[in-house]
Amino acid sequence: MEIKLTRIPIRNLFDGYENNDEQGVCAYGGKLDIRPPYQREFIYNPEQQKSVIRTVIKGFPLNVMYWATRDDGTFEVIDGQQRTMSICEYLEGNFSVVFDGEKDPKTFNNLTEDKQKAILDYELTVYQCSGSDSEKLDWFRTINIAGEKLTEQELRNAVYKGPFVTEAKKKFSKTGCVAYKIGNKYLSGSCIRQDYLETAISWINNDNVSGYMSEHQHDKNADPLWLYFKEVIDWTTTKFTKYRKEMKSVQWGELYNAHKGDTLDAEELETRIAKLMADSDVQKKSGIYAYVLDGDEKHLGIRIFDENTRREVYERQKGFCSICNKHFEIEQMEADHITPWKDGGRTIAENCQMLCRECNRHKSCK
């Protein structure tokens, strides 16, 4: 592992700058990959871009940037994409800036020669790191402590970079991508922060995202992943016909994997879901969708008896367990539904009994 501190004039950085949607973004005489596979889309807003240029024109220091050295001697930006893009886009003439003491915004070409020279001569502080993929990944995790940190999926994209990541990003990671168009109502997170890609891989490979990416790293396309994702969304919209906001946080791929072969009636499912949505004892509404498929109450977060109810019922029983009839302190007892919730029992004082822990445990096992 080797880390080298360098100072690079902006004129050298800007040399050969190209921003191509298909080919990517490069600079530094074609030797710097500004947007490698794990980097997110450019997200600085106009004011942030202008702030970078004002910092440069004043000669103030920008934060240190980090490049990784590739085996062929070229580089990729690990940290500093936003600042690099802002500088190069300004020099390209793509936006203007109002500088201190001036009223009118100016593009780079409208600046006086001395100001142009000040920008071009400005030296960026860059750490260049060479080593194995895992060493570079560990190194980045160490230095990525400011700004917007890379997500775990963005880091995985760095380790398993190749044609699969490139093609998968086209479908899952672009603003307005096809995965967003069909799945945004059912998935949480941001496609440009790789949440959609991570979710799809997690679903298709039982939560082993790295394993799937390692196995498919050199695939020429990501068609199997895309077709699987589309099947999940199609199944979801077919079986659960009424959309509710709670559906956005459901792990639909996991439900599809477990129940895609089940005979399910969409109308019957909706009737059960509507009833559960109206049940005040059901605290986790998003869990209803898993519950109507497997019947496990743990998905629902059934409301528990509050402390006032526990105390009321304890005093009513005078501290005696309803099953073994032995006396206990309240801290040694647990509140239990007399009529279980699944049989229509409510979480109210009239349906509560205090049991010692052992009796409650044995009752639960029956």
Short note summarizing the structure:
The protein is of the alpha+beta class.
Overview of the molecule:
The structure is a single chain. By secondary structure, this protein is of the alpha+beta class. 42% of the residues lie in helices and 12% in strands. It has 16 helices and nine strands. Strands 1-7-5-6-4-3-2 form a seven-stranded mixed beta sheet. The protein has a two-stranded antiparallel ribbon with strand order 8-9. Helix 9 (195-204) runs parallel beside helix 12. The protein is elongated. 30% of the residues are buried.
The helix/strand order is EHEEEHEEHHEHHHHHHHHHHHEEH
Cα shape = elongated
Extended strand count: 9
In percent, how much strand structure appears in the residues? 5-15%
Q: Within the largest sheet, what's the order of strands? A: 1-7-5-6-4-3-2
Low-confidence stretches: none
Topology:
Layout: E1 2-9, H1 10-14, E2 18-20, E3 24-27, E4 32-33, H2 46-57, E5 65-69, E6 75-79, H3 81-91, H4 113-121, E7 123-130, H5 133-143, H6 152-159, H7 163-172, H8 178-183, H9 195-204, H10 209-216, H11 223-239, H12 252-259, H13 266-277, H14 288-294, H15 307-316, E8 333-337, E9 352-356, H16 357-365
Helix pairs in contact: 2-3, 9-11, 9-12
